Every structure is written in C-alpha cells, then in structure tokens.
Amino acid sequence: MKSNTPSWSEITRLEFIERLLYWRGWINRSDLVDQFGLSLPQATNDLVTYSTLSEGGCAYNIRRRRYETTTVFEPRLTLPRLWDDLTELAPVAWSQEASPLLAAPEVPSRAAPMEVCQQISRAIFSQQAVKIRYLSGHARAAELRKISPRALANDGLRVHVRAYCHRVGEFRDFNLSRIKEIAGCEPCQFSGVVDEDWQNFVELCLSVNPELTPEKQAALQYDYGMTKGRLLFRARKALFLYTARRLGFILAGKQEPPYANELGELILERVTEVKAS
C-alpha cells in the first residue's frame, strides 16, 4: 500500500513553491522544472498539491498560466528568512540578464583550508582533542597547541572554534583561518568540563542616543523594533564581544556601560548575565 506521507523530496519541492510564492508572489511549472529537473506533469502535480495545502492561499491564473498568491496567503511549511531565501531563489526566480538581485560588501577572504575545517568538525562530533599549529598573533611562528573543540561561532568575518585550551586550562576562541595544520588527534580528557560562557547568556539593553533629533530617534526605534524606547535581546556570553562589536560598540570589553556605539546612534545601557534554564 502506498504511504500518504510525503517524501523528503516532495516536502523540499513544496517548501520551494511556498518560498517563491511568498517572496515573488507567483510560480509556474518551469520554475520547478528548472530547479528540480521534473517533468511537466510532476510539476503540475506539485503545484496542485500545494494549492490544496494552502487552503485558498494561492490560485491558478488562467490568463498568465501561473499560480499566484491571494489575500489570505500565509506560509504553512516554512519560516520566511529574507537573505537566506532569496539567495536560494535568485538563480531561478531572477533574470540573469537583469541587475543582480542580491549584493553584500566585498571583504577579503579569511577562510581556513577545508581539510582543517573538516578535521575540527570531526573532532567536535567525536569529542577528540587535536594538536594544532596556530598563529596566535603573540608569537613570531606558529605554535603547537592542544585543544578540545566544542562548537563553532561566526562573527560575520571569521569562523572561530570554541575549544578547551589544554595549555591554559580554560575555554578560548581560535580563529580557524589561523590554524596552519592539524598535527594529530587523540581522545579528549576534558569532555566532561562544561563551557559555562557558551551555555549561559547575557541580556543587552539598547536605547537610542537622546542627543539625536526626535525624528531620528523615532526612526531608529522603529528600525530596531524597540518597545518604550528600549530593546532587550540575548547573546551567548562567549559571543558577547562579537555581538556588541557588530552593533558598533567597539569599546565592548574595555569600557563599562552605558556608552554610545561608533555611529553615535545607539546606547548600550547595561549587560546582565542570564543563567541558562
């Protein structure tokens, strides 16, 4: 007996349909054919399936020969993510002859060798310790260090490995692009040691610089979704400096709140530790 449960591939196609409807407002059979290499009948079947699932959220436009969203359309399978979704959809949904749909500031590459990334990843999953040759910025040559990797963190420019440093006996961040070589691996002796700063959070309280014009203050409060002039949000304690500096608080870690960010727009009023539940 054939199962009524949709397969992973069918769910993937239905999610693609939903994202394209959400961001572009319409979809036709050729979009599915180009993306998944389907036959036209299979593409039609997927569109009919999603149309039924949407319960009136999309309808077929006979004149334009495509499915379009209606006023009651809402996502049922996916959580919309602007940049991630459009990065995936742009090659299919946007004409290659047109101006680029997406762009980001160009920055120099600081990528680590893929072999290093692979071995660090495997060490995390298998709870192993690794010996690395690392350019710390404090020594003239790469130093041999032993670390026990636990997690990865991206600060927007670099990827760090959060690891227990056997030399200093505490958790530190190591820039993947500064690891020149993995010199060996072995069972980790510190797998039971908890990284408290990674497990726990801090709460940041932001407000708008009161020296700005009322119009500028109102615009920034709306931009950041502030409630009663303040925004509270959490960041992992281990990543606090990266979070604060991404927001322009370049003195984070060197100056106690309150103080303004580099653009003079936001005030970091306070940072409060929050224990993990």
How would you describe what is shown here?
This protein is α+β, with helices and mostly antiparallel strands and 277 residues long. The chain has a five-stranded antiparallel β-sheet. A hairpin with a 4-residue loop joins strand 2 (58-61) and strand 3. It has helices at 8-24, 29-36, 40-53, 82-93, 114-126, 196-199, 214-223, 240-246; strands at residues 26-27, 58-61, 66-69, 128-134, 143-154, 159-165, 170-175, 179-187, 201-208, 230-236, 259-260, 266-274. The chain starts with 7 loop residues before the first helix and ends with a strand. Helix 1 (8-24) crosses helix 3 (40-53), helix 1 (8-24) crosses helix 4 (82-93) and helix 2 crosses helix 3 (40-53). The longest helix is centred in the N-terminal third of the chain and has 17 residues, at 8-24.
Briefly characterize the structure.
This protein is of the alpha+beta class and 277 residues long.
Summarize the topology:
Layout: H1 8-24, E1 26-27, H2 29-36, H3 40-53, E2 58-61, E3 66-69, H4 82-93, H5 114-126, E4 128-134, E5 143-154, E6 159-165, E7 170-175, E8 179-187, H6 196-199, E9 201-208, H7 214-223, E10 230-236, H8 240-246, E11 259-260, E12 266-274
Antiparallel strand pairs: 1-3, 2-3, 4-5, 4-8, 5-6, 6-7, 9-10, 9-12, 11-12
Give the spatial strand order of the biggest sheet.
7-6-5-4-8
Low-confidence residue ranges: none
Distance between the termini: 46 Å
Shape: globular
Question: Which oligomeric state applies?
Answer: single chain
What descriptors fit this protein?
277 residues; 31% helix; SH3 type barrels; alpha+beta; Arc Repressor Mutant, subunit A; 5-stranded antiparallel sheet; 4-stranded antiparallel sheet; single chain; 3 domains
